[in-house]
Amino acid sequence: MRIYNTLSRRKEEFVPLKAGEVGFYVCGPTVYNHIHIGNARTFISFDVIRRYLEYRGYNVRFVQNITDVDDKIINRAFEEGTTTEDIAQKYTKAFVEMMQAIGVKEPTVRPKATEEIPTMVSLIEGLVLSQHAYVVDNDVYFAVRSYAGYGELSRRNIDHLISGFRVDVDERKNDALDFALWKAAKAGEPAWESPWGLGRPGWHIECSAMSRRYLGESFDIHGGGEDLIFPHHENEIAQSKAAGDGFARYWLHCGMLTINDEKMSKSTGNYLLLKDVLGQVSPQALRLLMLQTHYRSPFDYSSDRSDEATAALMRVENSLRNLDMLVYSDDIVIDDRAVEELQERIAIAESGFQEQMDDDFNTAGAIAAIFALISHVNTLFASGTASSRLQALALQAAATIRNLLAVLGVDLASSPKATSGLPDGVLDLARLLLDYQGDDIGEAADALAGLRAKARTDKDWPVADAVRDGLSALGIIVEDTPRGTRMFLNTRLDEDE
Ligand code: AMP
Ligand code: ZN
Fold it and tell me: Which is nearest to 247 in space by CA: 379, 106, 152, 337?
């Protein structure tokens, strides 16, 4: 398996520290607002990488922090006239709910900054002792020049950086590059006891302290969005390495999401919260859409693209329905060639998927491998060939499509069965058109399908259309296939809403 490492700027063979185990850290959100769709892209990307490592047999220990003390949270609390705890709690809950909604697996550990103050204080104390950090009044700063490797991740030259700091240089710092590890308390802000008096930690130290505590001094993968490379990850490396830790070995960064080819920005209104996007597109379609672009490339979101993804997802569901019908069809024709070919196509989908994902998690290629199998299934279905061996294989093909999509976190839990979840209106329609007397929705649906099939055979188009239109008004799609008429609920979200 080859992974692109931002540190070396090339793809490297992935060799974990401990065979079969992966220690994985991904910087989490600052909980001062609902997450936006750009945050979601980064979290979905790392969820897929984690799921794939698990699929390849690794035992993954996945750590993601919650930054629940920060200037942005303090400002938000002030704006809303409430406490920082209140804001942090509210948006942490909203974040976890959103992660569940888009099928991002729970991390092994989700530490909160406010619950890890002693972990951070002890790391900072060590840095002060070894003179990588210094105390000014009640603040503590990291001395960037004390760590010779500074700039290695972002490939920035320290002296060039300096020229970027013309204004706003804090006179109390020894060097404009130095950054705060600990900030003295200001009135009305949350604060904790420390050897330097009441105060709160800086942002960067959080990840160094938590990764050390939960993954050890050295671990395998560290991830985040590309915007975190500098200064956040550069500072994390400086702190941890100065403290003697081996720290992260592979650095993975997700490209930025833009909307309609422009950077997301709250002030221009070019901004979308994940919760609002989920009102327009299903989580499965959203994942399929995002994963059609490699995680390192920039990704542009638009509503046209989300419609395409919805259509692609419907193709997948249709193919699973086709397979379902093959499994239960009774017109058995033995065709060895078709059987062999399907068997081959299943194997090719599986090996193609793995080959693509092994190459720096090329989800676009992996999805193409799944869709090649889907196309084959649809052609096979249209050709009308079926045999008992083919039926068993159809089951296997459906399982392959489902399982490979599940590795991408696209969960198609149950077979989109013909009659499950149909609305009560089906009974009324059957009563109206057929004088149906019962109260079994499935039975009523079958009767309507039978009525339509007969009307089609008799070329009685008004009746055939009345059935289809009546069902369509109930949100049910009627489809005539080479293997008969079937109906299913339209799961596509209504664009007009
Ligand atoms: P934050 O809460 O701002 O620290 O962001 C949480 C995560 O989302 C970080 O890994 C960021 O790098 C990532 N992120 C922020 N904006 C974007 C974006 N436009 N596209 C992709 N990832 C982003
Ligand atoms: Zn971090």
Answer: 152
Our answer on whether the CB atom of 262 is closer than 6 Å to any ligand 1 atom is: no
DSSP one-letter code for 383: H
pTM of the shown model: 0.87
Tell me if 223 CB under 6 Å of ligand 1: no
User: Mean of the pLDDT values across residues 121-142?
Assistant: 97
Separation of alpha carbons 314 and 308, rounded Å: 10
Q: Give pLDDT tens digits for 344-388.
A: 999 999 999 999 999 999 999 999 999 999 999 888 877 766 666
374-399: buried (b, 16+ CB within 10 Å) or exposed (e) per residue?
A: bebbeebbeeebbbebbbebbeebbe
Give dist(CA 7, CA 166) in Å, integer: 28
Ligand nearest 225 Cα, by number?
1
Q: Which ligand places an atom closest to the C-alpha of 211?
A: 2
Q: What local confidence, expressed as pLDDT, does residue 415 receive?
A: 46
Of all protein residues, whose CA lies closest to atom 15 belonging to ligand 1? 39
Q: What is the pLDDT of residue 421?
A: 67
- Residue closest via CA to ligand 1's atom 2 equals 29
Q: Decide: 27 in ligand 1 pocket, CB within 6 A.
A: yes
288 close to 313: Cβ distance less than 8 angstroms: yes
Give the nearest ligand 1 atom to 35 CA: 2
Phi/psi of residue 21, nearest 5 degrees: -120, 145
* Residue 51 φ/ψ, nearest 5 degrees: -60, -40
